Amino acid sequence: WTVLTASAPVVLVAMAVGIGIALIQALTQIQEITLTFVPKIVAIMLVVALTGPFIGGQISAFTNVIFERIEHGF
Question: What span, in angstroms and rounded, lies between the C-alpha atoms of 40 and 4?
């Protein structure tokens, strides 16, 4: 569950941008590889910058649970 909630924002934005760019490429018949690469990277960096504290909090909470389970023998 933690992996899903931590990675969902980035994956969903990358998918949405990819579909949008693919649609634009299909409509205009422009097949340039950088046209798909650059917008995805920019969008992913923006999402990571905006949701970084949330993702970090999710991973930190998961790590604390794991360490507590190790400490108590499961």
Answer: 20
